[in-house]
Amino acid sequence: MRCRTKLPAGSFSSIFITQEKRNTSNPVKMNILLIGSGGREHALAWKIAQSPKVNQLFIAPGNPGTAELGINLPIGANDFDGLKNAVIEHQIDMVVVGPEDPLVNGIVDEFKNDPRVSRIPVIGPDKSGARLEGSKDFSKRFMFRHNIPTAAYFSVTADNLNEGIAFLDTQKPPYVLKADGLAAGKGVLILNDKEEAIHELKTMLGGKFGASSKTVVIEQFLSGIECSVFVISDGKDYCILPEAKDYKRIGEGDTGLNTGGMGAVSPVPFADAAFMEKVENRIIRPTVEGLFSEGIIYKGFIFFGLIRVDGEPYVIEYNARMGDPETEVVMLRLTSDLVDLLEGAANGTLSGKTVEFDHRTAVTVMLVSGGYPEEYEKGKEITGFGNVEGSIVFHAGTTQKGDKVVTNGGRVIAVSSYGENKDEALARSFKNAELIRFDKKYFRKDIGFDL
Ligand code: AMP
Ligand code: GLY
Prior knowledge:
By secondary structure, this protein is of the alpha+beta class. Helix content is about 25%, strand content about 25%. The protein is built from 12 helices and 25 strands. Helix 1 (about 40-50) runs parallel beside helix 10 (about 325-335), helix 5 crosses helix 6 (about 135-145) and helix 7 packs antiparallel against helix 8 (about 195-205). The longest helix is centred in the middle third of the chain and has 21 residues, at about 275-295. The structure holds adenosine monophosphate and glycine.
């Protein structure tokens, strides 16, 4: 069942508007450990730090942006022993996992199986739930088991290559090949030529993406417009968060190589009441119920990567976490207390919650290192933070070097803004994007162009 959604007047589901008063009586204050170091984690930290339920926020490893909101701990996201020790040392009451890697590697199971920390809730699915993202073959089988709309597919290994090629023969170009496992966002190939697709299929099976492409999922190509929908689940019930559209290609007009995401916008105008009702009935509810029915108690974020084809929603992919850079706009639009929702996910009490959205548009524009997503340099000094007015600056790939903040990744800074509409919000982000400076900075000036 969904928790209540309280949207701005005129939006979908405003029938759920209630006059409930927030319970503000002396909340028990918690110490929270947030895992990760990107723009998503800075945005989560920004939102968590606003909660009256937080005593102290720790971030492992964090970045110079999160250092302004809590205490960064120099522990890697996959250093489970280090993280467990930190939980004990700092008397952490709740762990929130940002990126997918630790989830797919089993951080939740690792905590559950260690009596020293087994009572500390870790927000994120366990290893079995994280397969929604960690194995495309698992997620496709899951969707077919539960009649969730998605592209036709065939899973190929070295043992059934000929059948895979026969499936390609049944498809029209372009051909979609996906590494089964995690591949840092690079595991999807879309090819126009069948011979090239067969060649790439063989290269993938031969180890192009290491063990991740020992199995390859071939998919029917779907043509439409994409958007990202997020829920937080307690295993039985869920709350729907603001939706967003991200811009994955490096070049304007959605051209060039895929990136981690060059910007995002929320709300998404085409995700209107009628569309979202279909998304909830055909995709969200069957997913949460399907997980439960398979004995997977999923406590965490589910990211539905959707595509609208002739007005109907299909799942392109699931992720077991929030999106980046979508989180940099979703957190701006979520007016409810995130920590209260995280607690609800941990305790199985989401059905009694109300989620409220800000009526304004939120956008983010990603400043990236020249050359990204191919080779780029790190260590460039970033200046101009003090000149920013009217935007919220999230650090994505930065690090502290003495008294300077320098670039430390492809995606460097996410400049996020509110506006009464998309154009107003974008004008703020673009203005401030110019004011933040580093050598070979690049950003797309057409975020939101297709909405
Ligand atoms: P992913 O890395 O799984 O997010 O996929 C990258 C991008 O590939 C998606 O955002 C889509 O734009 C595209 N894509 C993936 N699967 C399909 C499909 N079956 N049909 C069309 N486009 C797809
Ligand atoms: N923005 C897409 C992702 O986080 O995977």
